[in-house]
Predict the structure.
Amino acid sequence: MQDSLRRFKADIFQALAHPTRIAILELLSSGELSAGALIDKLGMEQANVSQHLAVLRAKQLVSNRKAGNQVFYSVRDPIIIEVLNLMRTYFHAHLKESLSMLDAIEKPLETAR
Amino acid sequence: MQDSLRRFKADIFQALAHPTRIAILELLSSGELSAGALIDKLGMEQANVSQHLAVLRAKQLVSNRKAGNQVFYSVRDPIIIEVLNLMRTYFHAHLKESLSMLDAIEKPLETAR
DNA sequence: CGAATATATTCGAATAATATAATATTCATC
DNA sequence: GATGAATATTATATTATTCGAATATATTCG
């Protein structure tokens, strides 16, 4: 059971472990948005956003409501937003190290393919 | 910058997205432990635990202190524990759905019970 | 020194996550 | 019922994570 809980947590964290999905949740934190609105605001491929939405749906982090032609998404439980906010606090607390971490992550962008 | 913050968050979540690493952080939440103690308590391969510790170190979620022969690990910032606790709250709030999610994840090794 | 203990690293194979492209579905309107 | 708009799904190539096995590095002790 202890173990199940950990697998569950790991699973949610996995769903959160992508910048695009975090962006989606943050965009939704102030209220619901249609898939199209999300695509616009993110400025990304329709299919890609839709796949990320599918991940969030699969882990039940968002709910969706179909209205005619469109699908409106919203954050299922505000606790998730709290988690994101805590992470922001964490980021600020460790700003210096965080920045060097980001430097390491962000490759010196190479010639695009 | 918005984007950097999201990449940072995603990166931390990625580090949290494994049951073993969650277990490690939870074991450390009440104080520091040596790598050996963690290996014992987890009952896992030495190399495997060490690799997970390396991930946690890389993302600076734990600090380590070498004392003679041993290396003692501790959680770097209690905010991380708060995040795990929030996740536990979330789990309880959505117990029913969570269980069915876990069912889907766990192999159908059902025979007994 | 050499052996023993504690921990870390490297390598390779298996598996999972991602982005893009192409296609499918669903609904509204004509 | 055909067309167009909004959204979802599938297929695939690429890349990243994971585990176990083997090996390496410290450190202590005799």
Remarks:
- Chain A touches chain B at residues 3-14, 16-19, 21-23, 26, 59-60, 77, 79-80, 82-84, 86-91, 93-94, 97-98, 101-102, 105-106 (CB under 8 Å).
- Residues 79 and 85 of chain A are 10 Å apart (CA to CA).
- Residues 14, 17-18, 45, 47-48, 51-52, 55, 66, 68-70 of chain A lie near DNA strand C (CB under 10 Å from a C1').
